[in-house]
Structures are given as structure tokens and as C-alpha cells.
């Protein structure tokens, strides 16, 4: 996981290296200061030599300034490297998501992906900044301060050998206790984002059913769960500071008692034992050693908090698309013919049954095919295999006589234009949304596509026409208008195959008939597949398929199905004859 994340440092590698280098310089200068301070006391103050006080005082100030410069440089390089690293990480994750096929997307929920791209990356950024500074500072301070303390008095330094292992064991117990809680918290963040996203996306439904209180309760429940977990974690972590204080004051008391006895016994003679200045330095080193250990414990806390986000982000980076290009892909679609040969499909290997069972079908190029079936009959699943949004579990799907798995994915999808069941418009003008179909389309081509989709008339009724701004999700246009804009966008691709997945459900029957008439007259060479709930939307089709339970239970023309298919007869009777009865 760490190696995968390390690749995101890239051009910020030099800053990530310079930060710890400067930190080592800062720590080195800080550990020299107590030695100089002991000379100020012993050779200056106690000896009554003001020249020595000034000399060592200036050296002290110089060391402090050098330490300050190193510290500022380390902080600058660390922040620069951390922000750059998080930028690259977020960039890599987002681009990785763009390569996912529908199977990969199904594996991760939308709210989980959003959480990983935002709060998880922010946590990793903070941890990275701490790691390249504090994770270097603390061990270096611990080592250098201990070495200098040992050079002054090996006897007094022995107290560290007793206290530090006990303190380290205590910190490890705290870290092991708190890790499962943080792991659970980040999973709960996914639930929180899901509640917020669902509520904001469906706010009109919430208000129309007056369910604001219920949504507030859902949010509060998840928010309170995060609050409880964080409180529990903080209660455990709160033992960290008292434990550190106990260790610090224990060392100070023992060193004070033993050091004072050694100073008195030696008569302030360094050669005989310990001087007053050296004892003062030992107090400083004690503080440096134990403070560095306390800071190291906080680094462990941060690492513990970051383990879950690191795992979650690397899951995104490590995920491989299920659908990939062959070694030598086909880059041209000959025509719009479609063949299903013994095709079965299931969304997951863990699924109890196939969504599609033994589909055998031949569609000639330029045909108009209608698909009817009840909810859950896998109508959308069937057509999603054509542009290879999913791969068939068994059997072969061919377009233009070539297995779809042999095509370059981009080439295939550029020739199979699909208006999905859930119509999506992006924030921007109508013109910008239409040009998703063809970025280089002229204004005349835009208008012609909209005329075919019966969208030009209502677009011109807007004050800004084709420059009318569409809100996120197309909330400022009606359902029927949104569907017609999506159809126009699909037509601009000039595809060999056009698939409308229940894309005229919000359009009145007159407009629906006009769209189908325009298709017949204007794009006769394009294979058209129309999924619909209304018989009137498909009765003029060259071939009508009736699906039930993932199987084709009837196929033929309108007249043939009225004679031979009970399900089609039932649908027709309920829609056409129901009013008369």
C-alpha cells in the first residue's frame, strides 16, 4: 500500500527529501544548545567571567537562529510536498475512477468514492506532512539527546533505560486499543455521506412528502454514531498525556535527587563527577527525550488513524477495470448489425441466478427493434451488453459481425449511442450539454439533432435559447425536456446503433410518435433499439422482443405477437382496450 501511495509524490520528491534533511539540522542544533548552556553556567556565571557569558551567549543565540532557519525550511518543504502529494493522489484516484466499467462502479458506492476522494485524502495529507517532519524529528531528538546525556553522566542516563521501555509499552497498548475504533469511524463516514447525498439529491421528494423530520433523524443517528466512536477513541488517547507527564516528572525527581548528590560530592568539579551546568543540561535533555517520545506517540496516533484511509484509497488505485482492450483491437465498426449467440449474464459470481438466460438474437443493420417486458425482466441489462458496459458471462455478443471484446472500447462506444434509463444533464448551457455527443458539432448540426428529437421548439422558447443554463442534474427543465435533450445529444454522435432505454417515458404520445417518425425518415441506416413500456412506442418496429425473467419469450412484429405471445397480448389489452372495457 505504501509503495503504491509513494508513486503519487512524483515531482514533489525533492521537497519530501529536503524537509527531513532540514529537520535533522534543526534537531542537531537544538541538542547542542544544552551543552553550550552548561558552559554559560560553569565557565561564565559560577566562574564570574562575563566575557565567557557573552561568548557562550552569542554562540547560544547563533545556534538558536540556525535551528529556527532549519525549522522554517523544514515546515515549508513539508507543507509543499504534502499538498502536492495529496493533489497527485486525488488526481490519480479520480482518473482511475474514470477508467472503471460498470462492474467496478457497482463494487464501490458513490458516497464511498466521494469520501475516499475528500476526507480520506485530507487525512492522508496531514499524516504525510507529520511523517516527513515529526517521524524524523522524534527519533533523531531521542537518539541525539540520549547520546549527549550519556556523555555527561552515564549514571543519570541509566534512568532513561528504565522509564522509556515502560512508557513505550504503555503507548503501544493505547494505540492497539484505538485502531479498531478509527477503522470503524471511516466506514461510518461513508454512511454519513450517503445520507447527505441521498437527501440533497431527492430534496424535492423529501419536501413533497413532508419527511424533513425523518431525514433529520437519519442524519442525527449516523452523526451520533461518529460522535460516540470519536469520544471513545479520545477517552483512550487522553491517557497519553498523563502517562507522559508521569514519566517526565519521575525522571526529573530522580535526576534532581541523584544529580544534586553528585554535584555536592564532586564539589562542582566536572572531572570528579557532575557540575551545576551539567545538571542543568541533564534536565533539558530529559525534557527533550520525553517530549520527543510524547510527540512520537502522537505520530503513532496519526498513523493509526491513517491506516483505514490508506487502505481505502489504495483499494481505488489497485482496482483494475474488468473490461480492457485486446492486444490488437479492431478500430472500425463495419455496420450496425447485432448478434447474441447463447448469451447468459450475471452481475456477480455470487449472484444466485443469471440476469439473462440463453439469449439468441439477430438484428440486421438499420432495423428498428422494440423491447417490452415487466419491471426486472432485464431489458436494460440486455442492451448494456451491446456497447460492452458489461461483458457476457457466457456466449458471444457481436456488433458488425465482430465480437465486442475484440473492439477498441472507445471505438465501439462511439458507434453505439445510448440514452440511459436515468437521464443525466450536466451543469452548463444546453449547447455545452449537446456537444457531449460531438465536441466539434456546428450550430446547424445541433439544431438538426434537436429537431429530430422534438427539442428545438421548447429550446427556442427559452430567453437564452441554446445558451440557456442547465442546473446540475437538469433540475430546471421538465422530465420530458430532459429526455429530448438527451436523445438529441445521442444523435449528434451519428452512431451506427442508437439505443433508447425507456427514454421517452416522460414524453406525450404525440411527441413520441413524431420522434419515431423522424428516426425512420432521417436516420434509416442506423439500427434503433427502443425499450418502452407503451405498446404504441414499439408497434411500428421491424422486430419486437418480449422479455420475462431474463429470457426472450416472444419476438416478431406487432401483428405476429398479438397472435402468438400471451404476455404481449395482455400488455396490449391493458393499454389499448382497457379504456373501452
Describe this entry's structure for a reader.
The protein is an alpha/beta fold and 581 residues long. It has 2 domains: 2-318, ABC transporter type 1, transmembrane domain (ABC transporter transmembrane region fold, Up-down Bundle), CATH 1.20.1560; 338-577, P-loop containing nucleotide triphosphate hydrolases (Rossmann fold). The protein is built from 20 helices and 12 strands. The protein has helices at 2-6, 13-45, 50-99, 102-107, 110-131, 134-152, 154-201, 203-208, 212-237, 240-266, 276-318, 379-384, 409-415, 430-434, 443-452, 456-461, 479-491, 509-522, 558-564, 566-577; strands at residues 338-345, 356-363, 368-373, 394-399, 402-403, 416-419, 428-429, 469-470, 497-501, 527-531, 543-548, 551-556. The strands form 3 sheets. The protein has a 6-stranded mixed beta sheet with strand order 6-9-10-3-11-12. A 4-stranded antiparallel beta sheet has the order 2-1-4-5, with no helix packed on it. Strand 4 (394-399) and strand 5 (402-403) form a beta hairpin. Helix 5 (110-131) packs antiparallel against helix 11. The longest helix has 50 residues, at 50-99. It is elongated. The two termini are 67 Å apart.
Query: What kind of assembly state do the chains in view correspond to?
Result: single chain
Structural class: alpha/beta
What's the alpha carbon Rg, rounded to whole Å?
Answer: 36 Å
> Strand order within the widest sheet?
6-9-10-3-11-12
| Portion in beta strands | 5-15%
Q: What name does the CATH topology of the largest domain carry?
A: ABC transporter transmembrane region fold
Amino acid at each position: 500500500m505504501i509503495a503504491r501511495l509513494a508513486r503519487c509524490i512524483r515531482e514533489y520528491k525533492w521537497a519530501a527529501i529536503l524537509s527531513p534533511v532540514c529537520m535533522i539540522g534543526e534537531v542537531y542544533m537544538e541538542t547542542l544548545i544544552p551543552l553550550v548552556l552548561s558552559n554559560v553556567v560553569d565557565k561564565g556565571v559560577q566562574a564570574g567571567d562575563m566575557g565567557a557569558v557573552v561568548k557562550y551567549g552569542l554562540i547560544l543565540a547563533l545556534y538558536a537562529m540556525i535551528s529556527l532557519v532549519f525549522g522554517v525550511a523544514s515546515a515549508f518543504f513539508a507543507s509543499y510536498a504534502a499538498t502536492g502529494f495529496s493533489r497527485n493522489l486525488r488526481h490519480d484516484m479520480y482518473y482511475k475512477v474514470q477508467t472503471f466499467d460498470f462492474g467496478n462502479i457497482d463494487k464501490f458506492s458513490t458516497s464511498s468514492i466521494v469520501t475516499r476522494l475528500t476526507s480520506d485524502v485530507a487525512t492522508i495529507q496531514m499524516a504525510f506532512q507529520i511523517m516527513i517532519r515529526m517521524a524524523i524529528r522524534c527519533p533523531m531528538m531521542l537518539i541525539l539527546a540520549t547520546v549527549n546525556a550519556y556523555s555527561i553522566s552515564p549514571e543519570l542516563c541509566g534512568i532513561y533505560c528504565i522509564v522509556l521501555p515502560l512508557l513505550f509499552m504503555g503507548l503501544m497498548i493505547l494505540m492497539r486499543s484505538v485502531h479498531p475504533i478509527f477503522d470503524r469511524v471511516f466506514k461510518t463516514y461513508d454512511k454519513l455521506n450517503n445520507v447527505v447525498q441521498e437527501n440533497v439529491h431527492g430534496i424535492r421528494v423529501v419536501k413533497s412528502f413532508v419527511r424533513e423530520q425523518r431525514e433529520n433523524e437519519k442524519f442525527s443517528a449516523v452523526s451520533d454514531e461518529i460522535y460516540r466512536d470519536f469520544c471513545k477513541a479520545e477517552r483512550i488517547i487522553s491517557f497519553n498525556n498523563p502517562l507522559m507527564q508521569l514519566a517526565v516528572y519521575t525522571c526529573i525527581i530522580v535526576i534532581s535527587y541523584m544529580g544534586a548528590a553528585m554535584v555536592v560530592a564532586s564539589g562542582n568539579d566536572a572531572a570528579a563527577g557532575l557540575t551545576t551546568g551539567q545538571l542543568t543540561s541533564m534536565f533539558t535533555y530529559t525534557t527533550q527525550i520525553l517530549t520527543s517520545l510524547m510527540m512520537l506517540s502522537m505520530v503513532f496516533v496519526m498513523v493509526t488513524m491513517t491506516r483505514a484511509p490508506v487502505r481505502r484509497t489504495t483499494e481505488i488505485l489497485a482496482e483494475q477495470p474488468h473490461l480492457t482492450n485486446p492486444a490488437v483491437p479492431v478500430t472500425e465498426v463495419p455496420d450496425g448489425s447485432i448478434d447474441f449467440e447463447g448469451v447468459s449474464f450475471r452481475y456477480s459470481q455470487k449472484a444466485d441466478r443469471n440476469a439473462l438466460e440463453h439469449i439468441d438474437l439477430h438484428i440486421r443493420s438499420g432495423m428498428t427493434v422494440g423491447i417490452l417486458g415487466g419491471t426486472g425482466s432485464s431489458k436494460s441489462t440486455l442492451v448494456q451488453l451491446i456497447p460492452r458496459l458489461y461483458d457476457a458471462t457466457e456466449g458471444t455478443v457481436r456488433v458488425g459481425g465482430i465480437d465486442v471484446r475484440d473492439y477498441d472500447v472507445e471505438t465501439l462506444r462511439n458507434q453505439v449511442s445510448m440514452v440511459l434509463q436515468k437521464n443525466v444533464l450536466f451543469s452548463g448551457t444546453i449547447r455545452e450539454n449537446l456537444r457531449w455527443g460531438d465536441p466539434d458539432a456546428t450550430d446547424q448540426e445541433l439544431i438538426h439533432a434537436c429537431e429530430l428529437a422534438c427539442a428545438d421548439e421548447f429550446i427556442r422558447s427559452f430567453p437564452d435559447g441554446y445558451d440557456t443554463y442547465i442546473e446540475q442534474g437538469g433540475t430546471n427543465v421538465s422530465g420530458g425536456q430532459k429526455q429530448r435533450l438527451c436523445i438529441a445529444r445521442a444523435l449528434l454522435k451519428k452512431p451506427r446503433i442508437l439505443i433508447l432505454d425507456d427514454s421517452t417515458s416522460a414524453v406525450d404520445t404525440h411527441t413520441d410518435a413524431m420522434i419515431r417518425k423522424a428516426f425512420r425518415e432521417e436516420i434509416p441506416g442506423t439500427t434503433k433499439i427502443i425499450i418502452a413500456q407503451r405498446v404504441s412506442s414499439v408497434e411500428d418496429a421491424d422486430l419486437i422482443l418480449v422479455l420475462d425473467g431474463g429470457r426472450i419469450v416472444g419476438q416478431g412484429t406487432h401483428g405476429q405477437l398479438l397472435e402468438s405471445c400471451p404476455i404481449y397480448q395482455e400488455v396490449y389489452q391493458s393499454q389499448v382496450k382497457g379504456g373501452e372495457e
